[in-house]
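Progress narrative, work stream C.
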Amino acid sequence: MPTASAGAGPRLDSIEIKVTFSDAGAAAAIGTLAPDHGGARRRVYFCEALARSRVPGELPLSDAGVILRLRDGGGRGGDVTARLRPCRRSRIGERWLGFRGQGPDSFGLTGDWSGEHRTLSASFTTDCGSDAVEAVASGAQPPSWALSERQRAFLADCADVRLGCGPLDVLGPVHSVRWDGVRLDHHEVNLESWTLDGPRPLRWLEVSERVPPEGAEVVQASLTALLRRQGLDPGPEEGTKTRRVLEALSLGSRPPQRILWSSS
Protein backbone atom coordinates (compact mmCIF):
# COMPACT_ATOMS: atom_id res chain seq x y z
CA MET A 1 0.00 0.00 0.00
CA PRO A 2 1.37 3.43 -0.80
CA THR A 3 2.07 5.47 2.28
CA ALA A 4 2.15 8.86 0.66
CA SER A 5 -0.01 11.73 1.78
CA ALA A 6 -2.55 13.29 -0.53
CA GLY A 7 -0.10 15.97 -1.62
CA ALA A 8 2.83 13.65 -2.35
CA GLY A 9 1.25 10.84 -4.35
CA PRO A 10 -1.90 8.71 -4.43
CA ARG A 11 -4.40 10.01 -1.91
CA LEU A 12 -4.14 8.49 1.57
CA ASP A 13 -5.64 10.66 4.30
CA SER A 14 -4.36 8.81 7.37
CA ILE A 15 -3.43 5.50 8.93
CA GLU A 16 -5.70 4.06 11.62
CA ILE A 17 -3.79 1.70 13.88
CA LYS A 18 -6.07 -0.80 15.62
CA VAL A 19 -5.59 -3.30 18.42
CA THR A 20 -8.59 -5.49 19.27
CA PHE A 21 -9.29 -7.47 22.44
CA SER A 22 -12.21 -9.83 23.01
CA ASP A 23 -14.11 -11.37 25.91
CA ALA A 24 -11.86 -11.61 29.02
CA GLY A 25 -9.13 -9.70 27.24
CA ALA A 26 -11.57 -6.89 26.47
CA ALA A 27 -12.69 -6.69 30.10
CA ALA A 28 -9.07 -6.52 31.26
CA ALA A 29 -8.22 -3.84 28.70
CA ILE A 30 -11.25 -1.73 29.66
CA GLY A 31 -10.31 -1.97 33.34
CA THR A 32 -6.76 -0.87 32.57
CA LEU A 33 -7.28 1.76 29.88
CA ALA A 34 -10.77 3.28 30.07
CA PRO A 35 -11.31 6.52 32.00
CA ASP A 36 -13.45 6.43 35.14
CA HIS A 37 -16.12 8.60 33.53
CA GLY A 38 -18.61 6.93 31.20
CA GLY A 39 -18.05 7.17 27.48
CA ALA A 40 -20.52 8.04 24.73
CA ARG A 41 -23.12 5.28 24.31
CA ARG A 42 -24.57 4.28 20.97
CA ARG A 43 -26.47 1.50 19.26
CA VAL A 44 -24.81 0.07 16.17
CA TYR A 45 -26.50 -1.84 13.34
CA PHE A 46 -25.18 -3.50 10.20
CA CYS A 47 -26.74 -4.55 6.91
CA GLU A 48 -25.89 -7.90 5.32
CA ALA A 49 -27.28 -10.03 2.48
CA LEU A 50 -27.60 -13.33 4.34
CA ALA A 51 -30.17 -14.60 1.82
CA ARG A 52 -27.31 -14.80 -0.68
CA SER A 53 -25.24 -17.02 1.63
CA ARG A 54 -24.47 -20.50 0.37
CA VAL A 55 -23.10 -21.82 3.67
CA PRO A 56 -23.68 -20.83 7.33
CA GLY A 57 -21.39 -18.04 8.44
CA GLU A 58 -20.89 -16.60 4.97
CA LEU A 59 -21.14 -12.80 4.81
CA PRO A 60 -21.79 -11.90 1.16
CA LEU A 61 -21.44 -8.12 1.50
CA SER A 62 -18.48 -8.18 3.89
CA ASP A 63 -16.79 -10.88 1.80
CA ALA A 64 -17.16 -8.56 -1.20
CA GLY A 65 -15.58 -5.72 0.79
CA VAL A 66 -18.78 -3.77 1.57
CA ILE A 67 -19.73 -2.78 5.13
CA LEU A 68 -22.91 -0.81 5.84
CA ARG A 69 -23.09 0.50 9.41
CA LEU A 70 -25.74 2.65 11.12
CA ARG A 71 -25.29 4.28 14.54
CA ASP A 72 -27.55 6.27 16.82
CA GLY A 73 -27.60 7.51 20.39
CA GLY A 74 -24.98 9.06 22.64
CA GLY A 75 -26.42 12.54 22.11
CA ARG A 76 -24.80 12.61 18.67
CA GLY A 77 -27.80 12.03 16.44
CA GLY A 78 -27.36 9.28 13.90
CA ASP A 79 -25.09 8.46 11.00
CA VAL A 80 -24.65 5.82 8.34
CA THR A 81 -21.32 4.73 6.88
CA ALA A 82 -20.73 2.92 3.60
CA ARG A 83 -17.24 1.42 3.79
CA LEU A 84 -15.23 -0.49 1.21
CA ARG A 85 -12.64 -2.66 2.95
CA PRO A 86 -10.47 -3.92 1.47
CA CYS A 87 -10.76 -1.20 -1.14
CA ARG A 88 -9.23 -1.49 -4.60
CA ARG A 89 -7.86 1.95 -5.40
CA SER A 90 -8.55 1.36 -9.09
CA ARG A 91 -12.32 1.31 -8.36
CA ILE A 92 -12.29 4.82 -6.82
CA GLY A 93 -12.86 7.26 -9.65
CA GLU A 94 -11.65 10.84 -9.83
CA ARG A 95 -15.05 12.11 -8.72
CA TRP A 96 -14.52 10.50 -5.31
CA LEU A 97 -10.75 10.94 -5.05
CA GLY A 98 -11.34 14.69 -5.20
CA PHE A 99 -14.20 14.71 -2.69
CA ARG A 100 -13.64 15.20 1.05
CA GLY A 101 -16.82 16.65 2.48
CA GLN A 102 -19.89 18.76 1.81
CA GLY A 103 -22.91 19.26 4.02
CA PRO A 104 -23.62 16.07 5.97
CA ASP A 105 -21.35 13.96 3.73
CA SER A 106 -17.68 13.14 4.31
CA PHE A 107 -15.31 10.77 2.52
CA GLY A 108 -11.88 9.48 3.42
CA LEU A 109 -9.24 6.97 2.32
CA THR A 110 -7.53 5.36 5.28
CA GLY A 111 -4.98 2.65 5.81
CA ASP A 112 -6.37 0.15 8.34
CA TRP A 113 -3.53 -1.48 10.24
CA SER A 114 -4.24 -4.35 12.64
CA GLY A 115 -1.07 -6.19 13.58
CA GLU A 116 0.58 -7.39 10.39
CA HIS A 117 -2.65 -6.98 8.43
CA ARG A 118 -2.76 -3.76 6.40
CA THR A 119 -5.47 -2.78 3.98
CA LEU A 120 -6.97 0.28 2.31
CA SER A 121 -10.39 1.44 3.50
CA ALA A 122 -12.69 3.93 1.73
CA SER A 123 -15.35 5.32 4.07
CA PHE A 124 -18.30 7.52 3.09
CA THR A 125 -20.33 8.78 6.06
CA THR A 126 -23.42 10.94 6.23
CA ASP A 127 -25.20 12.43 9.23
CA CYS A 128 -28.71 11.10 8.70
CA GLY A 129 -30.23 11.68 12.15
CA SER A 130 -31.32 9.18 14.79
CA ASP A 131 -34.87 8.97 13.40
CA ALA A 132 -33.54 7.63 10.09
CA VAL A 133 -31.46 4.99 11.86
CA GLU A 134 -34.44 3.90 13.94
CA ALA A 135 -36.65 3.71 10.84
CA VAL A 136 -34.22 1.33 9.12
CA ALA A 137 -33.55 -0.70 12.29
CA SER A 138 -37.28 -1.24 12.82
CA GLY A 139 -37.94 -2.18 9.20
CA ALA A 140 -40.14 0.85 8.58
CA GLN A 141 -37.79 2.10 5.84
CA PRO A 142 -35.30 0.35 3.54
CA PRO A 143 -31.53 0.79 4.12
CA SER A 144 -31.16 2.99 1.03
CA TRP A 145 -33.53 5.53 2.61
CA ALA A 146 -30.94 6.50 5.24
CA LEU A 147 -28.11 6.99 2.73
CA SER A 148 -27.45 10.28 1.02
CA GLU A 149 -27.64 10.62 -2.75
CA ARG A 150 -23.83 10.82 -2.88
CA GLN A 151 -23.44 7.65 -0.83
CA ARG A 152 -25.74 5.72 -3.13
CA ALA A 153 -23.80 7.00 -6.14
CA PHE A 154 -20.50 6.06 -4.46
CA LEU A 155 -21.65 2.48 -3.86
CA ALA A 156 -23.00 2.18 -7.41
CA ASP A 157 -19.70 3.44 -8.84
CA CYS A 158 -17.19 1.73 -6.57
CA ALA A 159 -18.56 -1.38 -4.83
CA ASP A 160 -17.77 -4.82 -6.24
CA VAL A 161 -21.29 -6.06 -5.47
CA ARG A 162 -24.76 -4.72 -6.26
CA LEU A 163 -26.74 -3.98 -3.13
CA GLY A 164 -30.15 -3.69 -4.77
CA CYS A 165 -30.51 -7.24 -6.11
CA GLY A 166 -32.28 -8.86 -3.18
CA PRO A 167 -33.25 -8.31 0.46
CA LEU A 168 -30.85 -7.13 3.13
CA ASP A 169 -30.76 -8.15 6.77
CA VAL A 170 -30.49 -5.47 9.45
CA LEU A 171 -28.33 -6.97 12.22
CA GLY A 172 -28.05 -5.68 15.75
CA PRO A 173 -28.07 -3.73 17.86
CA VAL A 174 -24.54 -3.85 19.15
CA HIS A 175 -24.13 -1.68 22.25
CA SER A 176 -21.16 0.66 21.93
CA VAL A 177 -19.33 2.77 24.51
CA ARG A 178 -16.64 5.06 23.12
CA TRP A 179 -13.98 7.18 24.81
CA ASP A 180 -12.21 9.66 22.52
CA GLY A 181 -8.85 11.31 23.09
CA VAL A 182 -7.57 9.02 25.85
CA ARG A 183 -3.92 9.72 26.76
CA LEU A 184 -1.69 6.66 27.05
CA ASP A 185 1.82 7.94 27.66
CA HIS A 186 2.61 9.94 24.49
CA HIS A 187 -0.22 8.32 22.49
CA GLU A 188 -3.72 9.75 22.11
CA VAL A 189 -6.12 6.92 21.34
CA ASN A 190 -9.81 6.18 21.01
CA LEU A 191 -11.33 3.27 22.90
CA GLU A 192 -14.53 1.60 21.73
CA SER A 193 -16.27 -1.24 23.51
CA TRP A 194 -18.84 -3.32 21.63
CA THR A 195 -21.18 -5.67 23.52
CA LEU A 196 -23.64 -8.23 22.18
CA ASP A 197 -26.35 -9.24 24.63
CA GLY A 198 -27.49 -12.83 24.98
CA PRO A 199 -27.20 -15.90 27.20
CA ARG A 200 -23.44 -15.56 26.79
CA PRO A 201 -22.74 -11.84 26.23
CA LEU A 202 -19.83 -11.10 23.90
CA ARG A 203 -17.55 -8.11 24.26
CA TRP A 204 -14.81 -6.53 22.20
CA LEU A 205 -12.59 -3.53 22.82
CA GLU A 206 -10.76 -1.73 20.05
CA VAL A 207 -7.88 0.62 20.77
CA SER A 208 -7.29 2.86 17.77
CA GLU A 209 -4.96 5.71 16.92
CA ARG A 210 -5.22 7.78 13.73
CA VAL A 211 -1.89 9.16 12.50
CA PRO A 212 -0.33 10.60 9.33
CA PRO A 213 1.03 7.99 6.91
CA GLU A 214 4.62 9.10 7.46
CA GLY A 215 6.06 7.36 10.49
CA ALA A 216 3.00 5.17 11.12
CA GLU A 217 5.16 2.05 11.50
CA VAL A 218 7.00 3.61 14.44
CA VAL A 219 3.74 4.64 16.10
CA GLN A 220 2.26 1.16 15.69
CA ALA A 221 5.33 -0.49 17.24
CA SER A 222 5.31 2.00 20.11
CA LEU A 223 1.60 1.54 20.85
CA THR A 224 1.87 -2.25 20.76
CA ALA A 225 4.84 -2.18 23.13
CA LEU A 226 3.02 0.18 25.51
CA LEU A 227 -0.01 -2.12 25.71
CA ARG A 228 2.17 -5.16 26.31
CA ARG A 229 4.02 -3.40 29.12
CA GLN A 230 0.63 -3.05 30.80
CA GLY A 231 0.00 -6.77 30.44
CA LEU A 232 -2.38 -6.40 27.49
CA ASP A 233 -1.63 -8.61 24.49
CA PRO A 234 -4.42 -9.38 22.00
CA GLY A 235 -2.55 -12.38 20.61
CA PRO A 236 -2.06 -13.21 16.92
CA GLU A 237 -5.53 -14.72 16.43
CA GLU A 238 -7.50 -11.53 17.01
CA GLY A 239 -9.11 -9.91 13.97
CA THR A 240 -10.98 -6.66 13.45
CA LYS A 241 -13.97 -6.21 15.71
CA THR A 242 -16.34 -5.51 12.80
CA ARG A 243 -15.73 -8.88 11.14
CA ARG A 244 -16.01 -10.79 14.39
CA VAL A 245 -19.19 -8.97 15.38
CA LEU A 246 -20.77 -9.63 11.98
CA GLU A 247 -19.94 -13.32 12.29
CA ALA A 248 -21.51 -13.44 15.75
CA LEU A 249 -24.62 -11.57 14.58
CA SER A 250 -25.12 -13.72 11.49
CA LEU A 251 -24.90 -16.95 13.52
CA GLY A 252 -26.88 -15.66 16.51
CA SER A 253 -30.26 -16.82 17.63
CA ARG A 254 -31.98 -13.45 17.20
CA PRO A 255 -33.80 -13.32 13.80
CA PRO A 256 -32.56 -10.40 11.67
CA GLN A 257 -34.91 -7.79 10.20
CA ARG A 258 -35.02 -8.61 6.48
CA ILE A 259 -36.05 -5.77 4.17
CA LEU A 260 -35.36 -4.65 0.62
CA TRP A 261 -32.49 -2.29 -0.15
CA SER A 262 -35.00 0.12 -1.66
CA SER A 263 -38.77 0.32 -1.62
CA SER A 264 -38.87 1.55 -5.21
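Work stream C, second folded protein:
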Amino acid sequence: MSSATDTVTRKSTTSGPTEPASVPSPGAPPPHARRVPVTTARVRRVVRRLPHLLVSGATRSAAIVALLLVWETAPRLGLVDRTFLPPVSEVARAWWELAADGSLADNARASLVRSFSGFGLAVAVAVPLGLLIGWYRPVADFLGPLLEVFRNTAALALLPVFVLLGIGETSKISIVVYACTWPILLNTISAVRGVDPTLLKLAKSMDLSAPRLFQKVILPSAVPVVFTGIRLAGAVSILVLVAAEMIGAKAGLGYLINASQYNFAIPQMYAGIVTISAIGVALNQFLVAVERRLGSWRLPAGS
Protein backbone atom coordinates (compact mmCIF):
# COMPACT_ATOMS: atom_id res chain seq x y z
CA MET A 1 0.00 0.00 0.00
CA SER A 2 2.78 2.44 0.86
CA SER A 3 4.60 1.72 -2.43
CA ALA A 4 1.46 2.48 -4.42
CA THR A 5 1.03 5.70 -2.49
CA ASP A 6 4.68 6.66 -3.16
CA THR A 7 4.22 5.97 -6.87
CA VAL A 8 1.15 8.19 -7.09
CA THR A 9 2.94 10.92 -5.12
CA ARG A 10 5.99 10.69 -7.37
CA LYS A 11 3.89 10.98 -10.56
CA SER A 12 2.03 13.98 -9.25
CA THR A 13 5.28 15.65 -8.24
CA THR A 14 7.13 15.09 -11.51
CA SER A 15 4.24 15.99 -13.79
CA GLY A 16 3.75 19.42 -12.16
CA PRO A 17 0.55 21.41 -12.09
CA THR A 18 -1.70 20.89 -15.06
CA GLU A 19 -3.69 23.68 -16.65
CA PRO A 20 -7.38 23.11 -16.84
CA ALA A 21 -8.65 22.36 -20.32
CA SER A 22 -10.43 25.24 -21.93
CA VAL A 23 -14.11 24.55 -21.94
CA PRO A 24 -16.15 26.38 -24.60
CA SER A 25 -18.94 28.48 -23.31
CA PRO A 26 -22.38 26.92 -23.50
CA GLY A 27 -24.01 27.48 -26.87
CA ALA A 28 -20.77 28.62 -28.60
CA PRO A 29 -19.93 26.71 -31.81
CA PRO A 30 -16.56 24.98 -32.11
CA PRO A 31 -13.75 26.92 -33.86
CA HIS A 32 -13.97 24.96 -37.12
CA ALA A 33 -17.71 25.53 -37.22
CA ARG A 34 -17.11 29.25 -36.77
CA ARG A 35 -14.85 29.43 -39.82
CA VAL A 36 -17.28 27.65 -42.11
CA PRO A 37 -20.04 30.33 -42.03
CA VAL A 38 -17.45 33.07 -42.71
CA THR A 39 -16.17 31.25 -45.79
CA THR A 40 -19.70 30.49 -46.92
CA ALA A 41 -20.67 34.15 -46.52
CA ARG A 42 -17.73 35.25 -48.65
CA VAL A 43 -18.61 32.75 -51.36
CA ARG A 44 -22.22 33.89 -51.34
CA ARG A 45 -21.14 37.52 -51.54
CA VAL A 46 -18.95 36.78 -54.57
CA VAL A 47 -21.75 34.80 -56.22
CA ARG A 48 -24.20 37.65 -55.65
CA ARG A 49 -21.78 40.16 -57.19
CA LEU A 50 -20.87 37.93 -60.13
CA PRO A 51 -23.73 39.04 -62.43
CA HIS A 52 -22.97 42.69 -61.68
CA LEU A 53 -19.26 42.16 -62.42
CA LEU A 54 -20.06 40.37 -65.68
CA VAL A 55 -22.42 43.12 -66.81
CA SER A 56 -19.93 45.82 -65.83
CA GLY A 57 -17.10 44.07 -67.67
CA ALA A 58 -19.24 43.56 -70.77
CA THR A 59 -20.28 47.23 -70.74
CA ARG A 60 -16.72 48.47 -70.43
CA SER A 61 -15.39 46.18 -73.16
CA ALA A 62 -18.28 46.70 -75.61
CA ALA A 63 -16.73 49.74 -77.28
CA ILE A 64 -13.36 48.00 -77.67
CA VAL A 65 -15.00 44.89 -79.14
CA ALA A 66 -16.98 47.07 -81.56
CA LEU A 67 -13.79 48.86 -82.62
CA LEU A 68 -12.02 45.56 -83.26
CA LEU A 69 -14.96 44.26 -85.30
CA VAL A 70 -15.02 47.40 -87.45
CA TRP A 71 -11.24 47.23 -87.82
CA GLU A 72 -11.46 43.61 -88.98
CA THR A 73 -14.41 43.92 -91.34
CA ALA A 74 -13.85 47.34 -92.94
CA PRO A 75 -10.64 46.36 -94.81
CA ARG A 76 -12.07 43.00 -95.84
CA LEU A 77 -15.24 44.60 -97.26
CA GLY A 78 -13.22 47.17 -99.17
CA LEU A 79 -14.48 50.13 -97.15
CA VAL A 80 -10.87 51.19 -96.59
CA ASP A 81 -7.67 50.31 -98.38
CA ARG A 82 -6.22 47.31 -96.56
CA THR A 83 -2.77 48.32 -97.77
CA PHE A 84 -2.82 51.23 -95.33
CA LEU A 85 -5.18 49.71 -92.73
CA PRO A 86 -4.79 45.92 -92.63
CA PRO A 87 -7.33 43.83 -90.68
CA VAL A 88 -6.73 43.48 -86.99
CA SER A 89 -6.04 39.76 -87.43
CA GLU A 90 -3.02 40.57 -89.62
CA VAL A 91 -1.84 43.10 -87.05
CA ALA A 92 -2.20 40.47 -84.31
CA ARG A 93 -0.21 37.99 -86.43
CA ALA A 94 2.54 40.57 -86.98
CA TRP A 95 2.55 41.39 -83.26
CA TRP A 96 2.98 37.71 -82.43
CA GLU A 97 5.85 37.36 -84.91
CA LEU A 98 7.62 40.39 -83.41
CA ALA A 99 7.09 38.98 -79.93
CA ALA A 100 8.34 35.53 -80.98
CA ASP A 101 11.64 36.74 -82.44
CA GLY A 102 12.28 39.03 -79.44
CA SER A 103 12.40 42.32 -81.34
CA LEU A 104 9.22 43.60 -79.72
CA ALA A 105 10.51 42.88 -76.21
CA ASP A 106 13.87 44.52 -76.93
CA ASN A 107 12.34 47.68 -78.34
CA ALA A 108 9.70 47.87 -75.60
CA ARG A 109 12.37 47.43 -72.93
CA ALA A 110 14.45 50.28 -74.38
CA SER A 111 11.44 52.59 -74.46
CA LEU A 112 10.27 51.68 -70.96
CA VAL A 113 13.70 52.29 -69.43
CA ARG A 114 13.88 55.73 -71.01
CA SER A 115 10.29 56.63 -70.26
CA PHE A 116 10.30 55.51 -66.63
CA SER A 117 13.68 57.10 -65.97
CA GLY A 118 12.53 60.48 -67.24
CA PHE A 119 9.13 60.13 -65.58
CA GLY A 120 10.69 59.23 -62.21
CA LEU A 121 13.11 62.14 -62.36
CA ALA A 122 10.26 64.51 -63.23
CA VAL A 123 8.20 63.33 -60.25
CA ALA A 124 11.19 63.62 -57.91
CA VAL A 125 11.86 67.20 -59.04
CA ALA A 126 8.41 68.62 -59.81
CA VAL A 127 6.46 67.50 -56.73
CA PRO A 128 8.79 69.07 -54.09
CA LEU A 129 9.27 72.15 -56.26
CA GLY A 130 5.51 72.52 -56.75
CA LEU A 131 4.88 72.18 -53.02
CA LEU A 132 7.52 74.81 -52.35
CA ILE A 133 6.16 77.26 -54.92
CA GLY A 134 2.56 76.74 -53.86
CA TRP A 135 3.27 77.16 -50.14
CA TYR A 136 5.86 79.96 -50.05
CA ARG A 137 4.86 83.16 -51.80
CA PRO A 138 8.44 84.59 -52.16
CA VAL A 139 9.52 81.47 -54.07
CA ALA A 140 6.46 81.78 -56.34
CA ASP A 141 7.20 85.45 -57.02
CA PHE A 142 10.81 84.65 -57.84
CA LEU A 143 10.21 81.65 -60.15
CA GLY A 144 6.83 82.71 -61.57
CA PRO A 145 8.08 84.63 -64.68
CA LEU A 146 10.52 81.83 -65.54
CA LEU A 147 7.78 79.23 -65.28
CA GLU A 148 5.48 81.24 -67.53
CA VAL A 149 8.16 81.33 -70.23
CA PHE A 150 8.88 77.60 -70.27
CA ARG A 151 5.37 76.28 -69.64
CA ASN A 152 4.25 77.73 -72.98
CA THR A 153 7.15 76.15 -74.87
CA ALA A 154 6.10 72.73 -76.11
CA ALA A 155 8.49 69.84 -75.63
CA LEU A 156 8.28 68.83 -79.29
CA ALA A 157 9.26 72.37 -80.29
CA LEU A 158 12.50 71.84 -78.36
CA LEU A 159 13.06 68.39 -79.82
CA PRO A 160 15.80 69.58 -82.23
CA VAL A 161 17.60 71.16 -79.27
CA PHE A 162 17.55 67.90 -77.36
CA VAL A 163 18.67 65.98 -80.45
CA LEU A 164 21.78 68.16 -80.47
CA LEU A 165 22.73 66.42 -77.24
CA GLY A 166 23.22 63.26 -79.29
CA ILE A 167 21.31 60.13 -80.17
CA GLY A 168 22.18 58.46 -76.88
CA GLU A 169 20.05 58.05 -73.80
CA THR A 170 20.74 61.52 -72.39
CA SER A 171 18.74 63.41 -75.01
CA LYS A 172 15.71 61.12 -74.82
CA ILE A 173 15.55 61.04 -71.03
CA SER A 174 16.03 64.81 -70.93
CA ILE A 175 13.09 65.54 -73.21
CA VAL A 176 10.90 63.17 -71.18
CA VAL A 177 11.90 64.96 -67.98
CA TYR A 178 11.11 68.33 -69.53
CA ALA A 179 7.73 67.22 -70.91
CA CYS A 180 6.64 65.47 -67.70
CA THR A 181 7.71 68.23 -65.33
CA TRP A 182 5.04 70.74 -66.32
CA PRO A 183 1.84 68.74 -65.74
CA ILE A 184 3.13 67.60 -62.35
CA LEU A 185 4.48 71.00 -61.34
CA LEU A 186 1.40 73.02 -62.33
CA ASN A 187 -1.04 70.56 -60.75
CA THR A 188 0.99 70.46 -57.54
CA ILE A 189 1.03 74.25 -57.30
CA SER A 190 -2.72 74.35 -57.94
CA ALA A 191 -3.32 71.63 -55.35
CA VAL A 192 -1.46 73.50 -52.60
CA ARG A 193 -3.14 76.82 -53.37
CA GLY A 194 -6.54 75.17 -53.60
CA VAL A 195 -6.64 73.83 -50.05
CA ASP A 196 -9.82 74.82 -48.23
CA PRO A 197 -9.11 78.07 -46.30
CA THR A 198 -11.58 77.08 -43.58
CA LEU A 199 -9.60 73.90 -43.02
CA LEU A 200 -6.40 75.89 -42.78
CA LYS A 201 -7.91 78.31 -40.25
CA LEU A 202 -9.18 75.41 -38.18
CA ALA A 203 -5.77 73.77 -38.19
CA LYS A 204 -4.03 77.00 -37.27
CA SER A 205 -6.46 77.55 -34.40
CA MET A 206 -5.15 74.28 -32.93
CA ASP A 207 -1.66 75.83 -32.74
CA LEU A 208 -0.14 73.40 -35.22
CA SER A 209 3.39 74.20 -36.24
CA ALA A 210 4.16 74.88 -39.89
CA PRO A 211 5.69 71.43 -40.54
CA ARG A 212 2.75 69.67 -38.83
CA LEU A 213 0.27 71.83 -40.73
CA PHE A 214 1.99 70.94 -43.96
CA GLN A 215 2.06 67.24 -43.08
CA LYS A 216 -1.46 66.87 -41.69
CA VAL A 217 -3.45 69.28 -43.86
CA ILE A 218 -1.66 70.40 -47.02
CA LEU A 219 -0.27 67.08 -48.23
CA PRO A 220 -3.43 64.96 -47.73
CA SER A 221 -5.59 67.61 -49.38
CA ALA A 222 -3.21 67.94 -52.34
CA VAL A 223 -2.90 64.22 -53.16
CA PRO A 224 -5.80 63.91 -55.66
CA VAL A 225 -4.80 66.93 -57.77
CA VAL A 226 -1.11 66.01 -57.64
CA PHE A 227 -1.90 62.52 -58.91
CA THR A 228 -3.94 64.02 -61.72
CA GLY A 229 -0.78 65.74 -62.89
CA ILE A 230 1.25 62.56 -62.41
CA ARG A 231 -1.20 60.59 -64.54
CA LEU A 232 -1.05 63.22 -67.27
CA ALA A 233 2.73 63.10 -67.12
CA GLY A 234 2.67 59.30 -67.43
CA ALA A 235 0.87 59.57 -70.77
CA VAL A 236 3.13 62.41 -71.90
CA SER A 237 6.26 60.41 -71.05
CA ILE A 238 5.37 57.74 -73.59
CA LEU A 239 4.10 60.02 -76.35
CA VAL A 240 7.06 62.40 -76.28
CA LEU A 241 9.54 59.54 -76.09
CA VAL A 242 8.06 57.85 -79.17
CA ALA A 243 8.41 61.12 -81.10
CA ALA A 244 12.04 61.45 -79.97
CA GLU A 245 12.81 57.85 -80.93
CA MET A 246 11.47 58.45 -84.43
CA ILE A 247 14.13 61.10 -85.05
CA GLY A 248 17.27 59.73 -83.51
CA ALA A 249 17.32 56.23 -82.05
CA LYS A 250 18.53 52.75 -82.82
CA ALA A 251 16.04 50.95 -80.57
CA GLY A 252 12.65 51.59 -79.02
CA LEU A 253 9.01 51.43 -80.02
CA GLY A 254 9.24 54.74 -81.86
CA TYR A 255 12.17 53.39 -83.83
CA LEU A 256 10.20 50.21 -84.57
CA ILE A 257 7.21 52.18 -85.88
CA ASN A 258 9.38 54.47 -87.99
CA ALA A 259 11.44 51.63 -89.45
CA SER A 260 8.29 49.65 -90.25
CA GLN A 261 6.86 52.65 -92.07
CA TYR A 262 10.02 53.09 -94.16
CA ASN A 263 10.04 49.40 -95.03
CA PHE A 264 6.29 49.49 -95.75
CA ALA A 265 5.70 46.79 -93.13
CA ILE A 266 2.32 48.25 -92.20
CA PRO A 267 1.11 45.40 -89.89
CA GLN A 268 4.33 45.69 -87.87
CA MET A 269 3.81 49.45 -87.64
CA TYR A 270 0.33 48.99 -86.21
CA ALA A 271 1.66 46.31 -83.87
CA GLY A 272 4.04 48.87 -82.39
CA ILE A 273 1.24 51.41 -82.06
CA VAL A 274 -0.98 48.88 -80.27
CA THR A 275 1.88 48.05 -77.91
CA ILE A 276 2.31 51.71 -77.02
CA SER A 277 -1.41 52.01 -76.31
CA ALA A 278 -1.35 48.92 -74.07
CA ILE A 279 1.62 50.27 -72.13
CA GLY A 280 -0.13 53.61 -71.65
CA VAL A 281 -3.31 51.96 -70.37
CA ALA A 282 -1.35 49.73 -67.97
CA LEU A 283 0.63 52.68 -66.61
CA ASN A 284 -2.52 54.72 -66.10
CA GLN A 285 -4.26 51.87 -64.25
CA PHE A 286 -1.21 51.45 -62.02
CA LEU A 287 -1.20 55.14 -61.14
CA VAL A 288 -4.94 55.03 -60.45
CA ALA A 289 -4.40 52.12 -58.05
CA VAL A 290 -1.61 54.00 -56.26
CA GLU A 291 -3.81 57.09 -56.00
CA ARG A 292 -6.64 55.08 -54.47
CA ARG A 293 -4.20 53.52 -52.04
CA LEU A 294 -2.83 56.85 -50.88
CA GLY A 295 -6.23 58.56 -50.86
CA SER A 296 -8.22 55.73 -49.28
CA TRP A 297 -8.87 57.89 -46.20
CA ARG A 298 -11.09 60.13 -48.34
CA LEU A 299 -13.48 57.28 -49.22
CA PRO A 300 -16.52 56.43 -47.11
CA ALA A 301 -16.27 53.36 -44.94
CA GLY A 302 -18.77 51.36 -46.96
CA SER A 303 -17.34 52.11 -50.41
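Residues 1-24, 299-303 have pLDDT under 50 and may be disordered. No further action is required on this item.
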